[in-house]
Amino acid sequence: MHSSKPLSGRSPGRTLGLTLALVSAFAFGGSGTAAKPLIEAGLSPLHVVWLRVTGAAVVLLPLAYRHRAAVLRRPGLLIGFGLLAVAGVQACYFAAISRIPVGVALLIEYLGPPLLIGYVKFVQRKPISRGAAVGAGVAVAGLACVVEVWNGLSFDALGVLFALGAACCQVGYFVLADAGSQGDRPVDPIAVSAYGLLIGAVVLTAFTRPWEADWGLLGGDVVMNGHSLPALIPAAWMILIATVLAYLTGVIAVRHLSPPIAGVVANLEAVVATVLAWILLGEHLGLPQMAGGLLVLAGAFAAQASKPAPVTLPADAVTADAVGAGAVGATALGERLARAAEGAEIEDRAQVDRELRGR
Q1: pLDDT tens-digit profile of 30-55?
Q2: Which site in 6, 43, 79, 237 is 20 to 30 Å from 178, CA atoms measured?
Q3: Contact 263, 112 (CB under 8 A)
Q4: Cβ neighbours around 118 below 10 Å, total
Q5: pTM, rounded to two decimals
Q6: CA distances to 14, 124, 249, 308, 331 from 318, in Å
Q7: Which one, of 321, 331, 270, lies nearest residue 295 by Cα?
């Protein structure tokens, strides 16, 4: 699939998009590591999610005000991003892990890139590069190893449906992030992120009931891998890095890459989360997880290194282009011939003049 901007080889836009996609994946990957000490201190997972999204929305309020014209320009896009890419992903994922193992839920959620490829190919009817499709498959296989899905296999129909809902909402994240640059009324990616988080915070408030949480815990200390530190440190990291930076860079990255490629690169989030949990929380990695991480990296590399799929123009469009090009060429050739004829005529007149003067 092509993004809204043409990409060819290692264009500056593609390089920037890949860099931002990697930053987004690394930023998103640290959310679980920052959230776990807060959860262990007594906050519920849903209240931690509310803190994360609402805190980020408050930080981005000045940017939302600056881009307030976007509300009238594309209100449906902003509402959809807030419902799907922010509130939907979070709510469905936490509903899923309440019924099925975390590893299984995470793997199903990260079926988002293959689902995204299917959506682009069969719904939007746009071409998909072979590298993006192969990379998505390899990355999903690697994810199965990273989360060690075989250690917690259990079937709960409702839990699986919630996890699939999170995957579908993840598809909405990439599709809507790209849609913001389409049409006659494009929306700045900063506005998409700011208003998406603001709308998501409002929706999550209705479900999480934050007034029931003991927010006094944020004034104390939490424990991370045996070390005590102020609770505000992981809270600030979760809000500023794992949410504000992650969403801003992620949405901008989709504008420079195609959604399928950006989606495959986003799979690195699970690898980053596992590695950070190993380093900061003391959760050791096994050989299958390390092998899975390499597979995810290989899949992401295969996807981002692929060339965009060629677009086949209809026969009538090709004919029209050929006729148009022929007409332009014929016109240019006619002008050149006219200039040549005019020059020849001038030369003939000059020759006559010389002969008359000679006589």
Answers
A1: 888 888 889 889 998 889 999 999 99
A2: 237
A3: yes
A4: 15
A5: 0.71
A6: 28, 22, 38, 20, 20
A7: 270
Tokens 């992401």 locate to 300
Q: In 10 A of CB 4, how many CB atoms?
A: 15
AA identity, residue 28: F
Written as six digits, the tokens of 340 are: 């040549």
> What's the CA gap between 135 and 356, in Å, rounded?
81
Residue type, 262: A
What tokens appear for 195 in the block?
């208003």
Instruction: Give the separation between CA 297 and CA 293, rounded to whole angstroms.
Output: 6
Q: Which two tokens stand for residue 107?
A: 């793997």
Beta bridge partners of 90: none
Report the amino acid identity of residue 244: V
Tokens of 209: 């009931």
Instruction: Check if the beta carbon of residue 269 is closer than 8 Å to that of residue 25.
Output: yes
pLDDT at 323: 39
SS3 333: helix
pLDDT digits (tens, 9 = 90+) for 288-301: 767 776 776 676 66
Q: How far apart are CA 152 and CA 166, in angstroms?
A: 19
Asked if the model's pLDDT at residue 3 lies above 50, the reply is no
Check residue 57 and give its pLDDT: 96
Question: Identity (one letter) of the amino acid at 174?
Answer: F
User: Would you place residue 192 in the very low, low, confident or very high pLDDT band (cuts 50, 70, 90)?
Assistant: very high
Distance from CA of residue 325 to its chain's centroid? 38
Of the listed ranges 87-101, 133-147, 229-243, the one predicted with least confidence: 133-147
Residue in this structure with the two tokens 């599709």, named with its chain if needed: 175
Q: Is residue 170 within 8 Å of 103, Cβ to Cβ?
A: no
Mean pLDDT over each residue of the chain, to the nearest integer: 76
